[in-house]
Structure formats: structure tokens, C-alpha cells
């Protein structure tokens, strides 16, 4: 008696190939994930996309306080944190939000990342209950904007060499120093500032109205132009004893915050890449040369195919890291893996997209050059290429090549 033959799946039940989701990654998302993604995409399309080219050209982000409140109202600020008015979203949902916001502009995603993954995360993880109650609800609602002061004019990749110093004066602290390239700095209501003390590196919550504190805005940027970037100056800022974050001492504090923010970049960089890639596809289908659309030529199709492969591999990598984070298994080395790969590939996608658009690729009528120049900053902030290579090199060999 012969064994019954296995039935073959009917080809009629297979979904059609989706050029916007060639790997079917959406199948990995549940309805809540899709709802978060669609909410962020709709907000960005309505509130950012009609204006972003003008903002970028002017080098401004007008109405940032209103935008912050709107982002708070849709749960985008500190969205993966729990309690204190935060959304308590999953890591994957936060990642999807970063992707959609950066598809609009890296400056918008940076506003959200610094607020939630750096300033709010530091308070949520290392702050006292009183500090959490004082700051987090207003920050989650977008009523209070936060910034994160770690990088200094002479110390970027080596934060252990920071010169900003806090000394005790009775029960108070007196904070002196400078921080550089601080997103949200001049509009922040509170700054999380990391400083050397006699007991090690500590984090301090500095209200923006503190005497001796100022945040002059940095101008003349050719990247992240639709973003507020500032210097922080602390000239003998006197703070009460309860201004210090009590639950951490040493670089573990700021570095854990940076790891959380880098995770968002793994997703966000793919948003910039997607926007550039989709612009190139649309252009290739409509731009005619030699009597037909350039998308019909083999060399153009090869470029589009290669970009699609790297784009969706990057999104799949981001999704995998998000699931690991939700499961409590994500390692800092894996975040370095994701940031190194995805930002590097995103820049290449932007550059290749620009070649398809030709001279039009440098025009702000299209998003490609704006995303490319933004990604030049994303490539080096929160860990340069070299630093992430050395993180992975150490993990692979067990040998420390940092010094």
C-alpha cells in the first residue's frame, strides 16, 4: 500500500510579491505593532513632511515645543518606559516609531531619542522616586523637553576623560564645565549632565533656569539642520543634594543610556534609507531617457535590487534585536553590530539613490540628499564607526584594542 502523497500548497493562496515589503516582514508584526507604526507614519506625513524641506533649508526646527507636545500626545516620548505617563510600549514598537520618524527626518527622530532614550531613560533607571515623579510625567507629555550632556569639546569617544566637575559645598553640589553637540539643549527644561566627582562619575539633573547654566545654540550645521543643537555651559551651577541621580556611579550610567539610544538608531537609520530608496524607485519608473523609463535599464535595476536587499536585511536585523531586547537578552555588542551595519548601509543606499536621481538628487524637492547629510551625523554620534568596530573586535577576539 503506497503512502499518501503530501498535498502541495495552492499557489492561489500565496500573497502577491509586495515591492515595499519583499521579505514579508510585516507578517512578524502583531496588530498593536502595526497600529503604532501607522500612527507614527500618519503623524509624520501630516506634521513634518509638508514642511521639512523648508525647515532644513532654513536650518531651523520652528514650533519644537508644539511638536514635542504632539509627540507626547501620541505616546512617542519615553514610549518604551513604564509608568509616570509613559506608554509602556515594546522595544519593537519603539523601533518602528523610530523608523517612521526618521523616514521623515533624522532631526525629528533625534528629538524623540534624546528625550526618551537618553534623558528620560536616565531618570527612569537611575533616579529617585521623587525625581521620577517631578520630571517624567511632564517629559512624557512633551511639556518638558530634556537633553543629555555627556560629550565635551575635547572628549567624545573617550568620555572617561571628561573635564566637567562637580564638587561638594556643604550639602550642595557646584557644577562647572562644558558639554558640546547637545540635541535639544537650548529648548530643554532639564539637562541630564554627567560630571566627575571625588566619588566617580555621577549624573546630575540640572533645571535650565539654574543660575550659571546656559545653552547657546550651535549654528552653521550642514547636517541635522532641522534640529536644535547646543553647547551646555555650567559656570558654578549650585545644585541641591537631591539633584544627583542616586542609583549609579561610573560610566555604566551614561553608557547604558547610550546603548538604549543606539538601539533606536538601528531602526531609525533604516527609515532614512527607506525614504531615499522609495524616492529612487518612483523616479526610476517615471524618468525617461533614450525613449523609456530608466527603471527599465539593467544597471538601474541592479542598483535598486542591491539597495532593496540591504534595506530589508537591515530592517530584519533591527526586528531581531528588538525581539531580543523585549526578551531581556540584547547585549551591548549586538547593539554595536546593528548600529555599525545599518547606518553604514543606510548612507550607501542614500548615495546610490542620488545617482539614480542624477542632478535632481541634490535638490530639496527630493529627500535623498537631506537624508544623506543627516546620516553623516548619525554615523558618528552615539559611537563612531571605529568605536563600534573595536567593540565587536574585542568581543570576537577577547583583546582590548581601545588603548
From TrEMBL:
A Pfam family assignment: Acyl-CoA_dh_1
Acyl-CoA dehydrogenase/oxidase C-terminal domain segment(s): 250-396
Alphabetically, the GO molecular function entries are:
fatty-acyl-CoA binding; flavin adenine dinucleotide binding; glutaryl-CoA dehydrogenase activity
User: Which residues lie within the region annotated Disordered?
Assistant: 1-28
Residue ranges of every copy of the Acyl-CoA oxidase/dehydrogenase middle domain listed in the record: 147-237
Which family does the similarity line name?
A: Belongs to the acyl-CoA dehydrogenase family.
Q: What is this protein called?
A: Acyl-CoA dehydrogenase
